[in-house]
Specification:
There is one protein chain. The chain has eleven helices and six strands. By secondary structure, the protein is an alpha+beta fold. A two-stranded parallel sheet has the order 1-2. A two-stranded antiparallel ribbon has the order 3-6. It has a two-stranded antiparallel sheet with strand order 4-5. Bound molecules: iron/sulfur cluster (2 copies). One iron/sulfur cluster binds next to helix 10.
Length: 235
């Protein structure tokens, strides 16, 4: 129903499935029937996605958003025909940009996994309502997007500090914490969406969750070494 529902992940998925271009049509800005004004969200998402495309070497012209009413059939036909011609001219996705197909696919898959994190970090800008098209290109800058990917935050549970209180596992929204009674907890980095909830939730007296920026996450402690031997039991 609403262009605001077109998630960044949908667009990235379309490209990782090999589509050469993506077009999003929304109602005219300021003419949304709902208080949500989802078309502004769609616009901001596209502006962000175009910068991400540039970051990975894809031509951002492959993604376009236009706003029009349902009565503007001729305009729609013209825009679609122009966009179709442009995408044809650009050629096959990746090939035209000189990017290896497998490399491109894995980059797109990696970035798709980061979508919840990206949306969290860029939350404020994604909620902007830009009135002037001249502001579009300034909403997200190249440096900002390069930094976004070079300073990605990860969360890691320090096995020396974890007391297996299970708070993080109960609060994690995607069940990314491998948890069991009296077992040092471990974050499954493949499942983690980097929301930071475990970091906030771990009791300060333990402070076991660490935030890591721009560095590789240490490997998880082996399963056979995860059992916590309490001091009273040692005696
Ligand atoms: S950062 Fe969020 S998703 Fe990742 S383990 Fe912690 S709570 Fe779960
Ligand atoms: S909240 Fe902290 S101490 Fe408790 S299980 Fe998670 S990491 Fe370990």
């Amino acid at each position: 129903m609403c262009s605001g529902r077109v998630d960044l992940a949908f667009v990235l998925r379309a490209f990782s499935n090999g589509l050469d271009g993506v077009f999003i049509g929304g109602c005219r800005l300021k003419e949304c029937n709902y208080s949500t004004h989802g078309n502004y969200h769609a616009l901001n998402m596209v502006l962000l996605c175009r910068k991400i495309m540039e970051h990975i070497g894809l031509n951002p012209e492959r993604l376009r958003i236009e706003f029009m009413t349902s009565g503007e059939g001729i305009l729609f036909a013209e825009v679609m025909s122009e966009f179709g011609n442009k995408v044809n001219k650009l050629g096959p996705l990746g090939k035209a940009e000189g990017i290896d197909q497998n490399e491109l696919k894995s980059k797109l898959v990696e970035i798709t996994k980061l979508v919840p994190y990206i949306k969290l970090v860029k939350n404020e800008k994604l909620a902007s309502r830009l009135e002037n098209p001249e502001e579009y290109d300034k909403l997200f800058t190249k440096d900002e997007i390069d930094r976004l990917f070079s300073e990605i935050i990860s969360y890691y549970i320090d096995p020396e500090k974890c007391q297996a209180c299970m708070t993080c596992a109960k609060r994690c929204p995607v069940e990314a914490v491998i948890s069991a009674k009296n077992q040092i907890h471990v974050i499954d980095q493949e499942k983690c969406i980097k929301c930071g909830t475990c970091f906030e939730a771990c009791p300060p007296k333990f402070g076991a969750v660490t935030k890591i920026s721009g560095e590789p996450v240490p490997p998880p402690i082996p399963e056979e070494k995860r059992t916590i031997v309490r001091k009273s039991k040692e005696k």
